[in-house]
Amino acid sequence: MYSFTPEQIVSFVGHGTTITIKSNKVPVKGYLYTIDPNTKNIVLYDLDQQRVIIVMNHDIEKVSIDDKDKIDVKLMDSFFKYQADNEFTQEWIDHQRERVIGLFEKNRIPIHYDEPVIHVLGSARVESPYVATSVVCDNALIRKRVRDLLLQLSR
């Protein structure tokens, strides 16, 4: 994706980023917040104007990352009010993990707990904070079924 590995993209979050637009060759500058893995659209945070810029994949000609210009990701998260709304305490995470393990055992689904990951059916993983969006699996059918099970806990 844009000639970067996923590991590089994660390490670039918070770095100054310049994107050259295909249609008008005008550079768009901001701090990298995320790259959507499906659409490859890029989300930048403009610190000066306190706004979000979304650059669509089809209009991106070039992406440049400045290794020296970086801001704290928590600053961007606070702008989105993400951190405060989604902060899980360790106590809540521990309780949720026990609930998830109990749910799998109750439904006789084979699991293996290897802290901090719950391995399900030998192919899926449930990672902290052990909610439906924490399920990772290459098999879409198994991923959906495990997520559906976890959604039962939120009802």
From TrEMBL:
<dbReference type="GO" id="GO:0032797">
    <property type="term" value="C:SMN complex"/>
</dbReference>
<dbReference type="InterPro" id="IPR009422">
    <property type="entry name" value="Gemin6"/>
</dbReference>
<protein>
    <recommendedName>
        <fullName>AD domain-containing protein</fullName>
    </recommendedName>
</protein>
<dbReference type="GO" id="GO:0000245">
    <property type="term" value="P:spliceosomal complex assembly"/>
</dbReference>
<dbReference type="GO" id="GO:0005634">
    <property type="term" value="C:nucleus"/>
</dbReference>
<dbReference type="InterPro" id="IPR047574">
    <property type="entry name" value="AD"/>
</dbReference>
<dbReference type="GO" id="GO:0000387">
    <property type="term" value="P:spliceosomal snRNP assembly"/>
</dbReference>
<feature type="domain" description="AD">
    <location>
        <begin position="69"/>
        <end position="155"/>
    </location>
</feature>
